[in-house]
Amino acid sequence: MNMATGDIRSNKVIMKEFPKVELHRHLEGTFHLPTLHRIAMQNGLPYTDDMDAFKSAVQFPKDSEPDFLTFLSKFKNDWYRSHQDVHDIVYDSVRHFSDDGLFYIELRFSPEHFAFHNDFDRMEITRIVIDAANAAAAEANVLIRYLVTFNRGKQNQYEMIDLYRTIRGLAIPEIVGIDLAGDETQYPPDQFTEFFRTVKEDGVYGTTIHAGEVSPAEQVWESIDRLHAGRIGHGTSTIDDEALQKRLIDEGIVLEQCITSNYQTGSWVDEQNHPLGRLYRSGVPVTINSDDPTIQDTDLTDDYIKACSYFDLSFDDLEKLNLIAIEGAFLPDREKSELRKKYLAAVKQFKDRFLVD
Ligand code: HPA
Ligand code: ZN
User: Fold this and answer.
1) Is the CB of 236 under 6 A from ligand 1?
2) Which residues on adjacent β-strands are paired with residue 149?
3) What is the CATH number of the domain that holds 228?
4) If residue 52 lies in a helix (H) or strand (E), which one and from where to where?
5) How much is the pTM?
6) Count of domains forming the chain
7) Which of the residues 180, 280, 315, 339 has an alpha carbon 20 to 30 A from that of 349?
8) Given the CA of residue 181, which atom of ligand 1 is nearest to it?
């Protein structure tokens, strides 16, 4: 296949249409700004009426040096005052997923984030989030599953186990995995071994751990060996450790990498030399993800364009990266092969429309 006139890999309008499978995106970081602004105004929160000023206040500051804790400080959980607020922000956020050409997403969210400020019932909040997101995803024609995020700094592992059991009791079939996020510098993997032993013993959910984002490769090893991670969030420090790369290849442990986020958090300083390209060419299962697009003031398509430009990826490479994502999805094999078939058909349609033989 040749490119159509010009290099369409840098054409945002066309790249938006490329079908994408995304394994790592936080609902808390992908909010629809106008809706959040309306909720903030309605609830009398101390933000300006001016949308541009509001945007600057809630996003990673444009004039900030890359910094992990500044990035994490943008996750505020005191916006919402009612179930309706939670429904509205979730529904409006997910409704826009088709703008990014999302084909399948494992969207992660923290029930604690949405419930904490008002002490809403966690079961009720989980149902509200899933119902609103399911309805919006159906409207946007995006296939969706969910990962439940537990935040390292917000609960200890015994509180996590209690909440986990409550959520497991809901038996919501679209919830397919458990995620550990938050500050890995202060809360290393060994503080969560009991929790993830429980998750493994239950055998109901896949497990993904944020690790090696701003910590050394040892934390990726520990997340695999002691927390039974089936996937790793970020894992940029994997580039320093060939034995670890071999382990990921041998066991098909997927890295969910996020180029823009990794720059803003200081996980990776030189964006154009991000490990994704080198790891991909070494056969390590890597994937392209957006992490927190609204906080970053980007979208997933921007990360695709960056990946193509920095690592000279072709559309065949992009297709392979998405097949890696499908392989790493927390779905039963039968659903994965169905998804793979549908995905390949969608990519063929894209190529027929935009690439010339
Ligand atoms: N790291 C850890 N926790 C997070 C992140 C991240 O990049 N984004 C949202 N929660
Ligand atoms: Zn993340």
Assistant:
1) no
2) 179
3) 3.20.20.140
4) helix 51-58
5) 0.97
6) 1
7) 280
8) 3
